[in-house]
Amino acid sequence: MKAVLQYRASSGFREQLRQCAPEWLSVVVVDENDDGAVRRELEDADVLLHVLTPVTAAMLNAAPRLKLVQKIGVGTNTIDVDAAKSLGIAVAKMPGTNSQAVAEHTLALMLAALRRVAYLDSACRLGTGWNLPPDTFDTVGELSGRTVGFVGYGAIPRRLTAALVALGAHVIYYARNAAQESAARWVASLQALLEQADIVSLHIPHTPDTHGLLDASAFRSMRRGAVLINTARGELIDERALFDALQSGAVSAAGLDVFATEPASADNPLLSLPNVVATPHVAWLTPQTLERSISVIVENCRRLRDGAPLLNRV
What is the Cα gyration radius of the chain? Predict the structure, then answer.
């Protein structure tokens, strides 16, 4: 069985794959930017291992032997699922494999935004760290005593709740259903969460219903000076409205791992703001996540080979 990994994989990831792949599974790694190589390798591939580069109908039609698109991660919005279904190609995902990594990165962005880490790091490197405007430190703060509001309450917010409570924060969340036995408090609407939270953190998928969920109206509803964290999907936010809110001080800071257009370009206005901490959609990416992902890859390829039901088929 042949699987094609469309990803600019590190040497460590390649070595993990080499060590873990069974003899019957050949994994070919292709740089996502090399369209010609991707097309060539897909001609006789059984499985496409997908990270972020969009899987289009044209790509699927050019892979006559393909039986499975295995998402490394959770979001399948970058896969033309309808085209795959029409061609009889299964699509599967990996819930839970990156939850720990994303939870830790979300916490890192909260702390970095609150303490203005990127801005202070830049000033320190320029030798101006002791010459900052005194009012700079009126804009930093602690997690303790603040209310963190999660939009969505899946595996990642649940992991974070205990840590945030231990640091002295209060945790609320908005989701369709209240969780059982949680230290966080459920609120009945997004509006209620925005009005109460000092830090708003997004943890929902991008769908037609959630596209641009945080728009100018939502930012007006937030507590003045609140912090926004997004490690979910960039399309959840109206970026122009966020830029305006950050400039005006309505939102004091943002920690963003995802953007509406990716990769984020240098001319994205949000990246020009000193109160934005940005990372390039890497919250999920740790060697530990990849190790867990490889286990799922091998298992689903085995199931595909043996005609057994796939794990987490979409």
Answer: 21
Span 206-229, average pLDDT? 97
Selection from 226, 178, 182, 225 nearest residue 202 by Cα: 226
203 is annotated as an active-site residue: no
Q: Give SS3 for 202.
A: strand
Q: What are the chain's domains? A: 2-97+286-306 (3.40.50.720), 99-278 (3.40.50.720)
Task: Give the ranges where the chain is alpha helix by DSSP (H).
Answer: 11-20, 35-42, 57-61, 81-86, 99-115, 117-125, 155-166, 190-196, 216-221, 239-248, 287-306
| Of 158, 203, 281, 292, catalytic | 281
Residue 262 annotated in active site: yes
Q: Which of 50, 170, 233, 292 is catalytic?
A: 233
pTM of the predicted model as reported, rounded to 2 decimal places: 0.92
Catalytic residue of the set 39, 40, 262, 302: 262
> Tell me: the pLDDT tens digits for 7-64?
999 999 999 999 999 999 999 999 988 989 999 999 999 999 999 899 999 999 999 9
Contacts of 42 (CB under 8 A, 6+ apart): 4, 48, 59, 62, 63, 66
Whether 281 is catalytic: yes
